[in-house]
Amino acid sequence: MVQRILIVLKFIFAVLLLPLVIGTVVALQGEIEKFDPALQQAINIGTLAYVLMRFFVYDFDAVYKFGQGIVGGCFQFLKPVMNFAPYVFPIYTILGIIAYAVVNIAGKMGDFGPLFFTVIAFTFAMHIVLTAQDLYTKDSMAGKPDYFFAMALIFIVDVFFMSLLMSLAGKGFSFVNFFKGLSTASGDIYVAVFKQLFVR
Prior knowledge:
This protein is mainly alpha-helical. It is built from 8 helices and no strands. The protein is globular, with a radius of gyration of 18 Å. The mean pLDDT is 85.
């Protein structure tokens, strides 16, 4: 009985998180559209490159699990965090953003900006897709309640964290504007759904 209640609650929370997921995507897209066209193209190329590689060449699952092992090792002194951290911290994307920030601060960027953004987009797409695959496989319950709830939460936290890092790494990405866009987009959805259900 208790397990059934938990399953229902997870579905409810997953549905409640959906507007935040949509708002996160809208806000992220809004900030990306402010980049130079070359950087926007680099992000699209990086994302598409991973998708094509995954389906036709190599899915990078071993690379992903190696990165998970590194993150898990960093948090091994905190048992509850150790199990969750590998999904929340995309280590390769973080390293890519740090490298971009260092080169940018050193004034050595030159024409390498698009390359960094391609790598960042590629590794982030890899992290999200393989995290979804891993969580989906581990959830053996009917309807996949753990998967939907955990994936929605992880996606929001991941994009939130990456947006903060990108804002700190260099010009062109505003975390404040991202947060405002997220709040506005998700808030509009919540209000629209509330009115549809309860206001006649």
